[in-house]
């Protein structure tokens, strides 16, 4: 089950466009000229929020139920996979150094997996999750 979908609220701005907020992730606040633009900006803000939380060693709150008038968004799939790996490591109290040993790679390779705008190979992330007893499963909704 993917639990990295969060509700955002688009509020009309007095000067035009929309202000976007997320009650579950208060650091997510952005704006856009149209609904489509605002939702695209919200996805980018969510991506940055995830990077911040991983970098600062913070948890991801469980998403609350979608309310009337809200939109459901998620960060890019690469970010979701990083968040899954991060969460699995936190649950098992595994450090990046320990994960590198399990994968038989240098620690720098593992650290790169969590760099915010670094593209990662899904095979490598899947292998890292497997080293933690997890399986990466992809589905479409």
The CATH topology label of the largest domain is Double Stranded RNA Binding Domain
Structurally, the number of domains stands at 2
For the biggest sheet, the summary is: 4 strands, antiparallel
Question: Any low-confidence stretches, pLDDT <50, length ≥5?
Answer: none
Strand content: 5-15%
Strand order of the largest sheet: 3-2-1-4
Question: Which keywords apply here?
Answer:
single chain, 141 residues, alpha+beta, Double Stranded RNA Binding Domain, 2 domains, 5 helices, 4 strands, 44% helix, 13% strand
Structure in words:
This protein is of the alpha+beta class and 141 residues long. It folds into two domains: 6-73, 2-Layer Sandwich (Double Stranded RNA Binding Domain), CATH 3.30.160; 77-131. It has five helices and four strands. The chain has helices at residues 35-55, 77-92, 96-103, 107-113, 122-131, and strands at residues 6-12, 18-21, 29-32, 70-73. The chain has a four-stranded antiparallel sheet with strand order 3-2-1-4, covered by helices on one side. Helix 2 (77-92) runs parallel beside helix 5 and helix 3 packs across helix 4. The protein starts with 5 loop residues before the first strand and ends in a 10-residue tail after the last helix.
Question: How would you summarize what this structure contains?
Answer:
The chain has helices at residues 35-55, 77-92, 96-103, 107-113, 122-131, and strands at residues 6-12, 18-21, 29-32, 70-73. It is an alpha+beta fold and 141 residues long. β2 (18-21) and β3 form a beta hairpin.
């Amino acid at each position: 089950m993917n639990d990295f979908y969060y509700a955002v609220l688009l509020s009309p701005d007095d000067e035009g466009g929309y202000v976007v907020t997320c009650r579950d992730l208060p650091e997510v606040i952005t704006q856009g000229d149209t609904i489509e633009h605002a939702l695209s900006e919200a996805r980018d803000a969510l991506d940055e929020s995830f990077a911040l939380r991983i970098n600062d060693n913070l948890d991801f709150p469980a998403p609350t139920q979608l309310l009337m008038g809200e939109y459901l968004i998620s960060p890019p799939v690469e970010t979701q996979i990083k968040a899954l790996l991060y969460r699995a490591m936190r649950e098992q109290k595994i450090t990046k150094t320990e994960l590198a040993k399990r994968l038989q790679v240098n620690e720098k390779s593992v650290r790169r997996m969590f760099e915010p705008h670094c593209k990662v190979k899904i095979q490598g992330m899947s292998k890292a999750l497997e080293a933690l007893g997890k399986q990466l499963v992809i589905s479409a909704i």
